[in-house]
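Final report, Chapter 2: Outcomes

The project's central promise was a pipeline that accepts a single protein chain and returns its three-dimensional structure in a standardized token representation, suitable for archiving and comparison. That pipeline is now operational. To close this chapter, we reproduce one record exactly as it appears in the project archive, with the input sequence first and the structure output second.
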Amino acid sequence: MNFLYTKREVVDKLNEITSSAENIVFEFKRDIDGEHLQIDINDSNAQEDYLIDYISIIHSINEVPFRKRIIVNRKIIANQDDYTLDLNLSNCEFKNQLVLFGKEFKGRVDFNYSVFNEINFSYSIFHEKTTFQHCIFDNLVDFYNTTFNNLVDFYYSTFKCSVQFHLTDFKNITVFSRVTFEQELQFLYNNISTESTKVSFENATFNRCIDISRSNFYCILNFWSSTIKIDSIIEELGESQFYKTDNGKLQSKTEKGNDVYHILRESIRIIKHSFKESNNVIESLRYQKVEIELLSRDRESDKKWSDSLSLQLNRVSNNHGLRWDFGICFTVMVGFVTFFILLDWDLIYRILCTKDFRNPHSDIGKQLIQFYLPFNIEYPSSFLKENLVGFLIFYISKFLIAYGYYQTIAAFRKYLKN
């Protein structure tokens, strides 16, 4: 159904916008069930600014029907340098490019419930509150050198494409709560206010890599109840084009070598520190474990076997400080296995055959208990093989048993501190 909309309220307001232009007709197309409203301009010349203002006006008139969605097919490149009034571009579906490059928005700007194919806000300045709540970003998002002087809110939005906030300034509260990042995310060399900036990723979901290693987020950070799919991120590190050079250019893991581990590990460290700052020790320990695992992978790729061995022992003995039961199992298994490896089975066989159970040295259980005393370093030659390899295994096992005790106590202490 095609028709020209001539509602008096709209025309009066449009006269102010189109006073400098002639023969501009705003054409409407409504789908058969009335769910969506599609608008366009009959003039192919540079009239994008009129379309932006018109969308804002149509939202300001309560009597206007078809409020569920405004579909904009044409590419919009705004020529107006600044917008002094509030701007409402909510409930829109921009099927082409929306370019607001180098603009200054002096009033409030709302894009709530909108869908963007490609959006460009490079070098733009937002002085008042800016909201992108419940939005979907499909293909391209460009916030290069964009400044948000007041609150910016992306609550419950979805980024289906990779997004980079390069040289983006966040001077006030910044909300990414319940946002889903389906692809890579990076904050690079951002300018923040240490006094007023608060960045919230509460309940956010990160499906791919996250890089805040060079974000300059020296402010209040909130990652409470966020989901970072670390396992899948680590598996995809080799394929990710997410990591950038200092000028923001994409580079792969192959080109940057092990820098990907360093970047991701530093990002995890910042998240861990944010939990410590809010006294959330349990969550900080969880990210500490991830940080150590990344360090372990980094050392493996660097062929530093000593660091790798130390990190692996830390993992199996108490799961990087998170599991005291791992420490108990580690200690018991080390003592039990090494004791029975060193047993002189020929001697045991002779004792069993002669049934000489009155022999005090036949009490294997007591010998095993003595074996678990880390400071009892006297070699129990009555039952164990006496050779150089046996002595070496014995003293290594004593060291590992003492290490197991220490790791168990360390895991307990971390939770007691909480």
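Archive annotation: The longest strand covers residues 92-99.
This record, like all others produced under the grant, will remain available to the consortium after the project formally closes.
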